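#onboarding

Welcome to the new folks! Below is a worked example of what a typical request in this channel looks like: someone posts a single protein sequence, and someone else replies with the predicted structure as tokens. Don't worry about understanding the tokens yet, we'll cover that in week two.

Example request:
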Amino acid sequence: EFNAMDTAAFKGVWVFCEQREGEIQSISYQLLSEGRKLANDLGVELAGVVMGSGLAEADLKTLGGYGADRVYNIDSPLLKDYTTDGYAKALCDLIMDKKPEIMLIGATNLGRDLGPRCAARLHTGLTADCTHLDIDMPIYKNFLREASTLAEERIEKLGTVKINGQDHDVSRDIKMTRPAFGGHLMASIFCPRFRPAMATVRPGVMKKREFCADCAEKVEILHPAFELSASDIKTEVVETVKAAKKLVDLIGADFIVSVGRGISKDVEGGIKLAEELAEVLGGVVGSSRACVDAGWITADHQVGQTGKTVHPKVYVALGISGAIQHKAGMQDSECIIAVNKNENAPIFEVADYGIVGDLFKVVPELIESIKAAKAAQ
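Example response:
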């Protein structure tokens, strides 16, 4: 009965709202905020889908506060802990029944496992690690003018694509943009022939909107019927073991001081300077992928396409050249300060303030200046 190519039968935007141990994850609120914009552009409803066991109604209503018109709560002891088989069956069955046109999933460890499995079962397309989503064609064209090197005449011609020799209007299709070829190219991907069009988005990429208490009270909580038995699940979660290791919170930080390959002449000293600067700013230390690959700093500090996407108030880049993969993860920071010996470094293209100089000489002066300014207050 389910036909992914019957595009006219699909309507609505859905967000898979991830929970862990009964706690809704922040990525769910970020995706609902973005999904609200897409649903408004299409003139359709936005729904959140939550799976678990015994989730509090107050937590479900919170999803409405971030944009959801309705919440599908699939409640079962078999879904208390994540398993690929259980979650994929429950989500795919619901999609086949209700037929949303767009499905957004967080690109977390859980979402990166669930998304492709569901796309394969539903015979539809999935665009992974999206950095930008659009419906409205004029807004999308403006995005291309600002973020791409496409000629104006090519941008103006956008609107239709050929499918089996026939023109297809993409004005209602979601435009999913993501880095490709190692970040050297930004690709916009459409899914015109199949539904739902699916996308995963990394935490921190989309901004969370202001919470709306009235919307939270008005949201409709639904408990759809579903069929799931222990025989459907091929694995059993026996125990959840958490590492005691403390990870740096880059996504929630207002001030980030990141280090790059420029600290190579004194790695330990460079990281120490970054830590001191981060401390006086009240922030945390980040890094480029080069530092992580070299083993100088742990992966939880990494900012960029394959690390974390951040939006701090101030981002300080120390000795970072500014490869496109790194810029993709930090270029939307409110204020960017770059320190680099190479005046032609690409990082200066996105920096609000640029200092051409040796970071080992510049940073101590920055630290002293900030301390002096604080003391004067």
